[in-house]
Write a structure and sequence with these properties.
The chain has 376 residues and is of the alpha/beta class. It has 15 helices and 16 strands. Helix 1 (47-52) links the parallel strand 4 and strand 5 (58-60). Helix 6 packs across helix 7.
Amino acid sequence: MTQRFSFQVQATDGAARTGTISTPRGEIRTPAFMPVGTAGTVKAMLPDSVRATGADILLGNTYHLMLRPTAERIARLGGLHRFMNWERPILTDSGGFQVMSLAELRKLTEEGVRFRSHIDGSTHMLTPERSMEIQRLLGSDIVMCFDECPALPADEARLAQSMRLSMRWAERSRVAFGDRPGHALFGIMQGGDNRALREESAEALRGIGFDGYAIGGLAVGEGQETMFSVLDYAPGFLPADRPRYLMGVGKPDDIVGAVQRGIDMMDCVLPSRSGRTGQAWTRRGQVNIKNARHADDPRPLDEACTCPACRTYSRAYLHHVVRSGEIIASMLLTWHNLHYFQELMAGLRGAVAEGRLDAFVADFHSTRAGGDIPPL
C-alpha cells in the first residue's frame, strides 16, 4: 500500500464536523458508526449485508482474535480482510480493555499485562509491542495503541496513575508501529472525568504524534451526563485536523450528543447485541418485540424503514420468531438495528453539511419522546 491515510473536514456546524477519512481500502464518511465484528464477524450478519446497511468500516477485536484463531493463523491465511471476506477498512482495538474486563488472573506491570485466557486458561503476555505485532498480522487499516482503561468512578490518584502508564505505552506503541504507508495509528486519551488529566493526556499524545486520536475511558459506567460533560471539553484538546474517535459509544442519543460535541467516529456492540435479544432501535425509541402486544400486529417494525425486516415482515412475525428462538430473528433484528444506526449517521452528516444540525437534533428528540405507536 502506497496511499497514505488522510482526513478532510468538509463542513462544520458548531462543534460538529462532517468529512472523509481516505484509506487504500476505501473512504469512510464521518461522522461514522463502526459495527463491531469481535471475532471476525458481525454476529448474525453476512459482510455484504453489513455493507448494505451503509457501513464503511468494521471494528475487529485484538484480544479475541489473538486467542482464537490467533493472529499468526489469520496472517498465514491472507489477513483479516480476506479471512472474514470484508475488503473495506477495518479498525482493531488494542486488546487492553478486554484484558482488563474479561481475562482471568491478570497482572499489570510497566511491561504490560500478563493474563489467563477466559477460553482455556492459557497464559499470555500483552505489551504495547505485542499489540502492535498482532494488529500488523491482522492487517488492520487503523491500529489502536495499547492502553489501560480504568472503570469509573475512580479517584484522581488512580486515574492519574493509569493515564500516565497509558501515555508511556502510547510512546512504545508509536515506536513499535513504525512507518507503515496505508495504515494509521491512533493514540488514546485517558484521564477519566478529570479535566486536568485529560488535558495532560492530550498534550502527551500530541507530542508523540498520531494519525488520529481516540477518547477512551468513557461509556464505562459513568452515565451520560458525566460523559457529555467530558466531551464538552476533551475533543478541543485534540488536533482539529485529525479524526476523533469515541470508543464504545453507544445508544442513539449518545451518538447524537457526541457528534454535537465534535466526535467523528464511534463503535458499539449495541445494535447487534440488542438484535439477538429481541430489542429493536427505531426513530421512536427502543421496541421490545417480545412483548405480547406485538403478537397480532400486522404493521412493520418501523413504517419509514427500508431494511428487509421492515420492508418484508410484520411485527407479528418478528414477535413469533423471537419467541420461538428462530435464527432468522437475530438476523432480521440485527439488520434492522444496523440499518437504523447507519441511517442516523447519514442524517447527521447531511444535517452538518447543510447547517441544520440543531433542527435535526430537535426532531430526533421530539420523535423519540412520542414513543412507539401502539397497534389499533
